[in-house]
Amino acid sequence: MFGIGKKAKKLDGIDMLIIKTEESANRHFYQVVFPSAYANDIVSMLRKLQKSPINKREYLGEIGGFHISTHLEAMTSFEVLDEADLEAHPVQIQDFANILLRRLEALEESGEVGESEELAFIMGELTMLRDGTFVPQM
């Protein structure tokens, strides 16, 4: 972890994960933002999904094979300098969770992925993220 000095984490800030994708046609990475107060739970859940056997392109589509490359903590602001670049725009955690959840629900309905406790947990967490019950809307 790269840091300059020690600082107390600002719980009212914004955290950002830079999530890289494998061989995506549209995006090479996502900048996913969420309130700093919920960072531990969100990062823990996404790391669990990252290590999961369903983190493959055939299961998660464009996001499949993702890995978290950077976690920026407690930012007070950010500025998009290239408005025309899709990858320059951060994605709200609710939208990112919705993308993942839609894909997992489709897989579950088609029977491509079997029922498991881990999958049920991840889908439950993603549902709460998408619906805003886990993290209030930013």
Could you characterize what this model shows?
The chain is of the alpha+beta class. The chain is 36% helix and 18% strand. It has four helices and four strands; from the N terminus they run E-E-H-H-E-E-H-H. A hairpin with an 8-residue loop joins strand 1 (14-20) and strand 2. The mean pLDDT is 87.
Notable traits:
18% strand, alpha+beta, 4 strands, four-stranded mixed sheet, 36% helix, 138 residues, globular
Determine the fraction of residues in helical runs and give it as a percent range. 25-40%
Please state the overall shape, judged from the principal axes of the Cα atoms: globular
SS field, number of helical segments: 4
Query: What profile does the largest beta sheet have?
Result: 4 strands, mixed
N-to-C order of helices and strands: EEHHEEHH
DSSP summary, beta strand count: 4
Class from helix and strand fractions: alpha+beta
| Uncertain ranges | none
Instruction: Tell me the distance between the termini.
Output: 26 Å
Strand content: 15-25%
Strand order within the widest sheet? 3-1-2-4
Quaternary state of this entry equals: single chain
Mean pLDDT: 87
Using the CA coordinates, give the radius of gyration: 15 Å
Concise summary:
The protein has 138 residues and is α+β, with helices and mostly antiparallel strands.
Q: How are the SSEs placed, and which strands pair?
A:
Layout: E1 14-20, E2 29-35, H1 39-51, H2 57-60, E3 67-75, E4 91-92, H3 93-110, H4 117-131
Parallel strand pairs: 2-4
Antiparallel strand pairs: 1-2, 1-3
Helix pairs in contact: 3-4
